[in-house]
Amino acid sequence: MRKLNFVGGNDVRLLHCGAEFFAALIADIDQAQQDIHLETYIFSSDATGLQVQAALERAAQRGVNVRVIADWLGSGDHQSKALTETFARGGVKFRRFNPWFRRGLARTHRKICVIDQKIALVGGLNINDDMLSDDDAAIPLEFPRWDFAVRVTGPLVNQIQLEIYAQWLRMGKLGLKSRLQLLLNLRDEEQVASHEPSLAAFIVRDNLRHRATIQRAYLQALGLARKKAILANPYFAPGRKFRRALISAASRGVDVTLLIGVGQFHLQDAVAHSYYPKLMKYGVKIVEYRKTQLHAKVAVVDEEWATVGSSNFDGLSLFVNQEANVVIRDAAFSQELTTHLEQGIADGVLIAAEDYNNKPWYKRAWYGTAYLIYRSVMRIATLGGYA
């Protein structure tokens, strides 16, 4: 598998939950002088969304070139239309990603912001209040939604800027020649590599250049793991390659722990439960996080390799949607993220084999049925790519 192109000399700061993320995002927007690019799956109309919206409009009013992309499905048709109108009045350029599925099934699930081509924020947080449920804004959460992002300064920002600007151009009216040139420019940028300290790589998943880049990054990390791997994700329904990589690592003595969010979607939970017996049989530890909504898409391997981003471990993120992660090779950063993950494990519930075996037969039958339904739908959606 192709190696990641790491860039050295970066400062990568971990942001935990909305309190840290939105404070950093709004402060950086308020300091912007030239341009802002923001891309998100959900741009809500709740109090947090309105604060970010106001900051973007303040920037536009002082002459900053502000471009915003929000997914049409994630934000909703009504909210997308409202944003189109309010941003136009506020001087913010706004585009909806793939309204009414005109360009296929893919959604932009990426959460990226680049400011003045100097600062980038990448992670799992949408533009919505982390004290309100993703499913219904009228349902409050007892604790903040558990999620992470990174704030990056340094050479890696150039790659992130190029990618998000290319996304903006792709959503406009580009001729075939211009689209090909854009693709070549992106490939040229990807040749940059380094062995300096504070290494980081920006990886995306799309349906053209990088159909399996994020999954490959995980497979490489698990394949090279020697001691310990902790992976946290809300939606666990990967294909066979990913599951085999987890089992292979655990089988050769790596301490593998999956921290999985549960309680949001019953079908998703059932699909995840269908994998439990085989994973546990080979030594993979499974911890269910029930304290609040787990929305984090993060991992640490051997306290040397870490990733933070938007990609779930399900068929949509790994095979259909557009995603973005940052991979970091820095011991101090990995240790900080590990500390958070260990706290998440302590707040979760460790699943034992007997817990599954003692479930009524009809529940176990439902888990298997849910998996078959999910696999069938994903195979259709991915044209056979999901297995």
Lay out the secondary structure:
Blueprint: E1 11-16, H1 17-31, E2 35-40, H2 47-61, E3 65-71, H3 72-75, H4 77-90, E4 93-97, E5 112-115, E6 119-123, E7 148-153, H5 156-170, H6 176-189, E8 199-205, H7 213-224, E9 228-233, H8 240-251, E10 255-261, H9 266-281, E11 285-289, E12 298-301, E13 305-309, H10 315-319, E14 323-329, H11 331-347, E15 349-350, H12 353-357, H13 361-381
Parallel strand pairs: 2-3, 3-4, 9-10, 10-11
Antiparallel strand pairs: 1-7, 2-5, 5-6, 6-7, 8-14, 9-12, 11-15, 12-13, 13-14
Helix pairs in contact: 1-2, 5-6, 7-8, 9-13
Short description:
With 387 residues, the chain is α+β, with helices and mostly antiparallel strands.
Explain what the structure shows.
This protein has helices at residues 17-31, 47-61, 72-75, 77-90, 156-170, 176-189, 213-224, 240-251, 266-281, 315-319, 331-347, 353-357, 361-381; strands spanning 11-16, 35-40, 65-71, 93-97, 112-115, 119-123, 148-153, 199-205, 228-233, 255-261, 285-289, 298-301, 305-309, 323-329, 349-350. It is globular and about 60 Å long. Strand 2, helix 2 and strand 3 (65-71) form a beta-alpha-beta unit. The protein has 13 helices and 15 strands. The protein folds into two domains: 11-186, Endonuclease Chain A (Endonuclease, Chain A); 202-381, Endonuclease Chain A (Endonuclease, Chain A). The two termini are 19 Å apart. The protein has an eight-stranded mixed beta sheet, with helices on both faces. A seven-stranded mixed beta sheet has the order 1-7-6-5-2-3-4, with helices on both faces. The longest helix has 21 residues, at 361-381.
